[in-house]
Amino acid sequence: MTRLPLHTLVALLLTGNSALADTAANKVSPLTLSAFIEQATRNDTSFERILIDQYKLQYRHDALMPDSDIIADIKYRHHVFLDQDHESPDASVSLSKLFPFSGTALALNYNKPVIAAGAVDQSSIELLITQPIARNAFGKALSLQGKLIGIENDIVRYQVVEAYEDYLAGLTATYYNWYTAYENLRTGEASLRSNQKLMQDIRDRQRQKIALPVDVNKMKLLLIGKQENVIVLQETRDNYRNLIARAVRHRQPEMLVPVKPDKPAAQVQFERDYGNFTGNSRTYKTLALLEQQGTLEVKSAADDILPSTNLLLGYRADGEQWGIENEQRSWFGGIGLRWELGGSVARARESIAKLEHRKTVLSNQDKYEELHTNLKNLYQQIEREQALITIATDKIRLAEAVLRDEAENYSFGKVTLNDYIVAVNRVDEARFGFTAHTVALAKLQIEWLRLTDQLVQEDRVLQQPAKP
Fold first, then answer.
1. Treating both helix axes as pointing N-terminal to C-terminal, what angle do 282-305 and 270-280 enclose, rounded to 10 degrees?
2. Which of 54, 131, 265, 416 has the least CB density, counted as fewest CB within 10 Å?
3. 3-class DSSP string for 167-202
4. Is 94:79 a contact under the CB 8 Å cutoff?
5. Dist. CA 102–CA 365, nearest whole Å
6. What are phi and psi of 256, to 5 degrees?
7. Cβ-contact 255, 240 below 8 angstroms
8. Is the pLDDT of residue 427 over 60?
9. Cα(55)–Cα(156) distance, rounded to whole angstroms?
10. Residue range 395-412: mean pLDDT, rounded
11. What share of the chain is helix, strand, coil (3-state, %, to 5)?
12. How far is Cα 93 from Cα 125, in angstroms, rounded to an integer?
């Protein structure tokens, strides 16, 4: 068996993610973060489910507002009198239309009643205009309802974008977790292979009476630990790869592998970003809309306290036969009043609306403080990870230098195998730590973009076409 010098084994260990770790027999299919997000939003039903709430908005106004179409009501009956030899039809035709934003109702009614034997065959037609002047005066209540629906639609639009932003952040976190698991596995496998080579070297030393049997057993224990670690890392990598494949509906035999993501474009500056957030973000606009919604609901509840009072104006023609012959025509005007004496229900609803509005205002005030605190803490976490990455880089450099020195010392018998094993593990830990902190920083930056409503552009989400 050919024996590798110890410094060569150390070089293999220190290259970690070199070509030695890329000798997998399976065909691989690299998948970048941007390609993953594009394929996931195209193939994953979760994205379409989010957009359905937006598609429904085009129907909400018509569905929730009173019907402004012309409504036709037609009735016809034929009567047979059992106690006399007589038959008579009766019929009515009604056309009505509501003009919601003025509250005006227009109705045209034709009536042909049933007639008894020997009675005059009568008919009539009436045009009636109804105009509210107290409750829903000149369409005030319906105008408030229309504004409420508009505010609710705006809130739903912001919520759709927010849901997509959460979805996108979740996809990105999943990809980063996958990349972390992939890199950790590469590090673990490279360390295992390098230490397997070292095991061969120690066996050669044992045969030459240089290494002790205890050194062989120590290396066996080290390799067992490395093998256990690789098995756990493989399972973690496979679990995340399955999640990625599900999101993009990957069914091909090629193995998906991640590509190192570019650093998020976010250059976090707390004062600048927080100022933009409070002035222009969807979150602050949504909170303001909730307060406007409460104000309009109070006005609507107050309008319901007023009596239902309508001005009436109409024209009527009474005559005979179906065609209203020998007609008598008249114009009329008047007033209709419907008063709920006491009005306890309406006043209770108004009081509840006022309390709910006050509750929204107080809740928003707490939310503003909560958002400031969360963003401040997140900013500090970003600064912490940046500092930890600098430390992790130094740890890798120092751990590799120590390993090289320990390898040389061990080859000359200056240190025990224990010292060398400690140095090997220290390098692995430093590499794992660097990967963890690098990915943690990227996740925190993505979370900063999400919380400050910078992760996605609103127009790109709301302009998505509906699928048939």
1. 30
2. 265
3. HHHHHHHHHHHHHHHHHHHHHHHHHHHHHHHHHHHH
4. no
5. 37
6. -75, 135
7. no
8. yes
9. 11
10. 88
11. 65, 20, 20
12. 9
